[in-house]
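Section 3.1: Structural characterization of target chains.
Under the original work plan, the team committed to producing a structural model for every single-chain target entering the pipeline before any wet-lab resources were allocated. The record below documents one such target. The sequence was received from the expression subgroup and is listed exactly as submitted; it comprises 153 residues.
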Amino acid sequence: MPLVLVSRDPKQIPDELLLHIGKHFPSIVANNLTVPEVPAAHLDATDVEIRFSDFSPFDVKKRPLEIVVFANDFLERKVDLEERTRQIDADLRESFSIIKSLNNFWVWILLMPGAFLDVTEDSHFEQASKIVENWPDWKKDTIQSEILNKKKG
């Protein structure tokens, strides 16, 4: 599940652009980071999470728009990572007219090992409980209690 961080200068990048990015960018990321020959690397738009933030006065070297994409590291993604990044840039420019004229932004894809578990769904509580069963008793009691309390709440 890729995580996208979008930072902007609110004086230069309007809210409307962020709304469009939130709506359309997950598909762009999914299309460009999917690896057809690796089932674990198949993505669709619902797999992509996006977080938006405005710059603070303490940020250094900021551009009007900065996009960081964190995604799981697959060798097949790594091989042509620069091309995937260029294609995301091209798709962004094609999708959003304001970006066509914006020459001062960047897209950065960071691949790294990762695991995701959504513990808000009942099936995942059961999976998490099964994982905890293999832990030492002192750790198991603490974590399992927290999981069960969250499930009840």
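DSSP finds six helices and four strands in the chain.
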